[in-house]
Amino acid sequence: MADILVSWIANDARGDWSLVSGDLDTGDDLATAILVSLFTDRPATASDSLPDGTGDRRGWWGDREIGSRLWLLDRAKQTEETRRRAADYVAEALQWLIDDGVVARFTIRVEWARRSTLGVWVIAHRSDGQSTSFNFDWAWQGVA
Protein backbone atom coordinates (compact mmCIF):
# COMPACT_ATOMS: atom_id res chain seq x y z
CA MET A 1 0.00 0.00 0.00
CA ALA A 2 1.32 3.43 -0.91
CA ASP A 3 1.63 6.12 1.71
CA ILE A 4 2.04 9.88 1.40
CA LEU A 5 5.54 10.41 0.02
CA VAL A 6 7.89 12.23 2.37
CA SER A 7 10.89 13.71 0.60
CA TRP A 8 13.94 14.84 2.52
CA ILE A 9 15.22 18.37 1.81
CA ALA A 10 18.87 18.11 2.84
CA ASN A 11 19.64 21.85 2.58
CA ASP A 12 16.87 22.66 5.07
CA ALA A 13 17.40 19.50 7.17
CA ARG A 14 13.71 18.65 7.05
CA GLY A 15 11.21 16.38 5.37
CA ASP A 16 8.10 17.50 3.52
CA TRP A 17 5.21 15.98 1.67
CA SER A 18 5.66 15.83 -2.09
CA LEU A 19 3.09 17.29 -4.46
CA VAL A 20 2.27 16.28 -8.02
CA SER A 21 -0.15 18.50 -9.97
CA GLY A 22 -1.43 19.97 -6.72
CA ASP A 23 -2.14 16.59 -5.09
CA LEU A 24 -0.19 14.73 -2.44
CA ASP A 25 2.20 12.28 -4.07
CA THR A 26 2.28 8.70 -2.90
CA GLY A 27 5.33 6.57 -2.43
CA ASP A 28 6.90 3.71 -0.58
CA ASP A 29 5.35 3.35 2.86
CA LEU A 30 8.50 1.67 4.20
CA ALA A 31 10.70 4.57 3.09
CA THR A 32 8.32 7.03 4.74
CA ALA A 33 8.25 5.00 7.97
CA ILE A 34 12.05 4.89 8.08
CA LEU A 35 12.38 8.63 7.42
CA VAL A 36 9.89 9.45 10.16
CA SER A 37 11.57 7.00 12.52
CA LEU A 38 15.06 8.41 12.03
CA PHE A 39 14.36 12.11 11.57
CA THR A 40 11.74 12.70 14.25
CA ASP A 41 13.16 13.53 17.67
CA ARG A 42 12.41 10.79 20.18
CA PRO A 43 12.35 12.06 23.77
CA ALA A 44 15.58 11.79 25.71
CA THR A 45 15.57 9.36 28.59
CA ALA A 46 16.13 10.53 32.15
CA SER A 47 19.74 9.31 31.96
CA ASP A 48 20.57 11.07 28.65
CA SER A 49 22.83 14.11 28.70
CA LEU A 50 21.22 16.93 26.71
CA PRO A 51 23.63 18.50 24.18
CA ASP A 52 22.25 22.04 24.33
CA GLY A 53 22.31 22.37 28.12
CA THR A 54 18.56 23.03 28.37
CA GLY A 55 15.95 20.86 30.02
CA ASP A 56 14.18 20.25 26.70
CA ARG A 57 13.93 16.47 26.27
CA ARG A 58 12.18 17.00 22.89
CA GLY A 59 9.91 14.36 21.38
CA TRP A 60 6.32 14.41 20.24
CA TRP A 61 3.64 14.64 22.91
CA GLY A 62 1.34 12.26 21.01
CA ASP A 63 3.72 9.30 21.07
CA ARG A 64 6.61 8.92 23.47
CA GLU A 65 8.26 6.17 21.38
CA ILE A 66 8.33 7.62 17.86
CA GLY A 67 11.59 8.84 16.36
CA SER A 68 15.25 8.56 17.25
CA ARG A 69 17.58 9.95 19.83
CA LEU A 70 20.17 10.81 17.16
CA TRP A 71 19.60 14.48 17.97
CA LEU A 72 21.52 13.86 21.21
CA LEU A 73 24.69 13.58 19.10
CA ASP A 74 24.43 17.16 17.77
CA ARG A 75 27.57 18.28 19.56
CA ALA A 76 29.28 14.94 19.97
CA LYS A 77 32.91 14.43 19.00
CA GLN A 78 33.91 12.20 16.10
CA THR A 79 34.78 9.15 18.17
CA GLU A 80 34.07 5.43 18.15
CA GLU A 81 31.76 5.92 21.14
CA THR A 82 29.67 8.45 19.17
CA ARG A 83 29.49 6.08 16.19
CA ARG A 84 28.38 3.21 18.45
CA ARG A 85 25.73 5.36 20.14
CA ALA A 86 24.43 6.41 16.70
CA ALA A 87 24.11 2.76 15.67
CA ASP A 88 22.23 1.99 18.88
CA TYR A 89 19.89 4.96 18.33
CA VAL A 90 19.18 3.89 14.73
CA ALA A 91 18.37 0.33 15.83
CA GLU A 92 16.13 1.63 18.62
CA ALA A 93 14.26 3.95 16.23
CA LEU A 94 13.58 1.16 13.71
CA GLN A 95 12.71 -1.60 16.19
CA TRP A 96 8.97 -0.90 15.96
CA LEU A 97 9.01 -1.96 12.30
CA ILE A 98 10.28 -5.37 13.36
CA ASP A 99 7.88 -5.58 16.31
CA ASP A 100 4.91 -4.77 14.03
CA GLY A 101 6.00 -7.33 11.41
CA VAL A 102 6.69 -4.75 8.70
CA VAL A 103 10.21 -6.11 8.22
CA ALA A 104 11.93 -9.26 9.46
CA ARG A 105 15.20 -7.52 10.35
CA PHE A 106 17.51 -4.65 9.55
CA THR A 107 21.17 -4.52 8.62
CA ILE A 108 22.51 -1.22 9.94
CA ARG A 109 25.92 0.26 9.17
CA VAL A 110 27.05 3.48 10.80
CA GLU A 111 30.45 5.00 10.08
CA TRP A 112 32.19 8.30 9.66
CA ALA A 113 31.50 9.09 5.99
CA ARG A 114 33.93 12.01 6.06
CA ARG A 115 35.15 14.55 8.59
CA SER A 116 32.27 15.65 10.84
CA THR A 117 29.69 13.64 8.86
CA LEU A 118 28.08 10.51 10.18
CA GLY A 119 26.95 8.05 7.51
CA VAL A 120 24.05 5.68 8.08
CA TRP A 121 23.13 2.85 5.74
CA VAL A 122 20.09 0.68 6.40
CA ILE A 123 18.93 -2.47 4.63
CA ALA A 124 15.38 -3.53 5.43
CA HIS A 125 14.93 -7.29 5.02
CA ARG A 126 11.30 -8.26 4.50
CA SER A 127 9.94 -11.66 5.50
CA ASP A 128 9.35 -12.54 1.82
CA GLY A 129 13.11 -12.35 1.17
CA GLN A 130 13.10 -8.96 -0.55
CA SER A 131 15.28 -6.19 0.76
CA THR A 132 15.45 -2.43 0.30
CA SER A 133 18.51 -0.25 0.91
CA PHE A 134 18.56 3.29 2.27
CA ASN A 135 21.57 5.60 2.35
CA PHE A 136 21.67 8.54 4.77
CA ASP A 137 25.32 9.57 4.50
CA TRP A 138 24.20 13.13 3.70
CA ALA A 139 22.03 13.66 6.75
CA TRP A 140 24.22 14.10 9.82
CA GLN A 141 26.78 16.74 9.00
CA GLY A 142 28.38 18.90 11.62
CA VAL A 143 28.93 16.25 14.28
CA ALA A 144 32.15 17.56 15.80
Q: How is this structure best described in words?
A:
- The protein is an alpha+beta fold and 144 residues long.
- It has a single domain, classed as Roll (Nuclear Transport Factor 2, Chain: A), CATH 3.10.450.
- Helix content is 22%, strand content 31%.
- It is built from 2 helices and 10 strands.
- Strands 7, 8, 9 and 10 form a 4-stranded antiparallel sheet that branches.
- Helix 1 packs across helix 2 (80-99).
- It starts with a strand and ends with a strand.
- The model has no long low-confidence stretch (mean pLDDT 84).
- Pfam families: GP46 (PF07409).
- Topology as H/E string? EEEEEEHHEEEE
Low-confidence stretches: none
Q: What would you report as the Rg, rounded to the nearest angstrom? A: 16 Å
What value does the average pLDDT take? Answer: 84
Cα end-to-end separation: 40 Å
Q: Work out the helix count.
A: 2
Q: If classified by CATH, what would the architecture be?
A: Roll
β-strand amount: 25-35%
- The total strand number stands at 10
Overall geometry comes to globular
What's the CATH first level? Answer: Alpha Beta
Which fold name corresponds to the CATH topology? Nuclear Transport Factor 2, Chain: A
The tally of domains stands at 1
Report the helical percentage: 10-25%
Q: Tell me about the biggest sheet?
A: 4 strands, antiparallel
Structural class: alpha+beta
